[in-house]
Design brief:
198 residues
Length: 198
């Protein structure tokens, strides 16, 4: 068993060096590999530094922008992540292009901008039509988009019928929800006849 794992490790190492030697400039991929190593360890600061070193050295391929977008998203820096994913969405690599559009769709879905989310999932599916996650997320975006449009139309209809402003409508909706809660909680209280008096 030990000889088997040793031989697998040797093949992987030789394959890695073969890729590096076959590349026209292997140094530009070292920043990506180093950044990926730190990213998967959860050391986002070092990962960012490695990716930035790659961009500072004149390496402008979309993979670095995409990886920086992942780091920024993991850190919760959503506007920076959006910028980097949009930069990488101009890449010639279709894999990076697909993942950048998919990630932008996810981010905009989380930000409740369902129109942009829908757009980016469509763009991702144009690149990779067989991706099930993109199809499912596209359906979720479409459902949310439809329900938000219906909700806006209902509010505007109420506003037209009653002539009230948005603040007054919100107040009335709040009062209505409170009343529904009070009435529903009264219905669940046990009647005095069913309660045993010890």
């Amino acid at each position: 068993m030990e000889r088997y794992t040793l031989s697998i490790q040797l093949v992987l190492i030789l394959g890695f060096f073969g890729v590096l030697v076959s590349c026209s400039s292997p140094g530009r991929y070292m920043d990506v590999l180093e950044g990926n190593f730190y990213y998967y360890r959860g050391d986002y600061e070092r990962a960012t530094a490695a990716y930035m070193q790659g961009t500072n050295s004149g390496n402008t391929h979309g993979r670095l922008s995409y990886n920086l977008g992942n780091v920024y998203f993991a850190l919760g820096e959503v506007p920076a992540a959006i910028d980097k994913f949009q930069e990488s969405s101009h890449s010639a690599d279709t894999g990076i292009l697909f993942r950048a559009n998919y990630n932008l769709g996810v981010i905009y879905y989380q930000l409740a901008d369902f129109e942009k989310s829908y757009h980016y999932f469509i763009e991702a599916l144009k690149i990779k039509p067989s991706d099930m996650d993109s199809k499912i997320d596209l359906e979720y975006s479409l459902q949310k988009l439809r329900s938000s449009i219906t909700l806006k139309n209902n509010k505007s209809d109420k506003q037209k019928k009653t002539g009230l402003k948005n603040s007054a409508l919100r107040l009335l909706e709040y009062i209505q929800s409170r009343e529904e809660y009070i009435w529903s909680s009264r219905q669940t209280e046990p009647s005095p006849d069913t309660v045993r008096d010890w």
